[in-house]
Amino acid sequence: MFFSDPSKRNTFQRRISDGDLVIVYERHDTMKAVKVRSGSDFQNRFGVFKHSDWVGRPFGSKVTSHKGGFVHLLAPTPELWTLVLSHRTQILYVADISLVVTYLEIVPGCVVLESGTGSGSLTTSLARAVAPSGRVHTFDFHEQRAALAREDFEKNGLSSLITVSVRDIQGEGFPDEFSGAADSVFLDLPQPWLAMPSVARMLKQDGIVCSFSPCIEQVQRSCETLRSKFTDIRTFEILLRTYEIREEKVKGDREDAGSPVGSLPRKRRQTSTVEGTYLSMERTHSVMAKPCSETKGHTGYLTFARLACI
Predict the structure, then answer these.
(1) Does residue 232 share a domain with residue 106?
(2) What range does the domain containing 197 cover?
(3) Is 140 among the annotated ligand-binding positions?
(4) Least confident residue range of 127-141, 149-163, 244-258
(5) Which of 49, 58, 260, 268 has the highest CB neighbour number within 10 Å of its CB?
(6) The domain that contains 32 carries what CATH number?
(7) Comparing 98 with 38, which gets the higher pLDDT?
């Protein structure tokens, strides 16, 4: 259902069909992936929504329930999938994923190796980046986790872009068939330094590796190993801060107190008194912006390195 062909990415020209995967959006922190099936329905606090009413509508449509409540039907994207997927392991979120895809220099047609697959959050974004002619080969040592990830990729229509295999990359390294064939490699392992010799053999000349580690001690040891065959070694920590923008009631000129720029322009309205005279009443609402009370902090460290030309 993830349209990896650039010619099909315009969601305004795509309509929901029976069997499609849609993201049912209630609000920014409440959404769910739903498979459309004729004769089925979706229930939430806003009421009952019949799938048959969704078929034929364009993605992004607002649909109402029998009670008058509404939701939006969004096209699945890697960004939205990251927010609704089942967490089998700790996952990477959009802030880290965006830097990974950028610094690994992934473009359509690339061959990317990944270890481990986990819940498949990053894998989905890698697949979109290499589409339509590239390939992501992802490995996980846990057989059941790999099987569940494979099912998710098939459900999302990504089987043509992703190959899932069971393998202990720390102990065995990547398969020899990929020797010198990978444009980039991503590692999410407890001991990534054990896999670095194999990574060096898999990468093409000037290829790039990225290792995700939650602890700085892992980063230090990985960098020691990388120095023998890699150059341009860099480590990043991403701290994302989001803001709440909402309208609040204010009293009189309190919002302008102490403002270095003076009073902000506000709408005025005329009200009539009993005697027939008019008074100027100022608007009692203002748009407020402040950091969210719950801000996600440290997720991990991203270490990038480029294979040195010998």
Answers:
(1) yes
(2) 80-239+297-307
(3) yes
(4) 244-258
(5) 49
(6) 3.10.330.20
(7) 98
Task: State the DSSP string of the chain.
Answer: ----SGGG--GGG-B--TT-EEEEEEETTEEEEEE--TT-EEEETTEEEEGGGTTTPBTTEEEE-TTS-EEEEEPP-HHHHHHHS--SS----HHHHHHHHHHTT--TT-EEEEE--TTSHHHHHHHHHHTTT-EEEEEES-HHHHHHHHHHHHHTT-TTTEEEEE--HHHH-S-GGGTTTEEEEEE--SSGGGGHHHHHHHEEEEEEEEEEESSHHHHHHHHHHHTTTEEEEEEEE-----EEEEEEE--TTGGGTT-TT-PPP--EEEEE-TTS-EEEEE--EEEEEEE-SS------EEEEEEEPP-
Domains of the chain: total? 2
**Does 168 appear as a known binding residue?**
yes
For residue 159, say whether it is annotated as part of any ligand binding site. no
Q: Identify whether residues 62 and 90 lie together within a single domain.
A: no
Q: Is position 120 annotated in a ligand binding site?
A: yes
The reply to whether 21 sits in an annotated binding site is no
CATH code for the domain of 191: 3.40.50.150
Note whether 225 and 159 are same-domain residues. yes
183 labeled binding residue: no
On whether 119 is known to bind a ligand per the annotation, the reply is: yes
Question: Quick one: 72 and 90 in the same domain?
Answer: no
Shared-domain flag, residues 154 and 56: no
pLDDT tens sequence across 27-79: 888 899 999 998 899 999 889 999 999 999 999 999 999 888 999 999 989 98
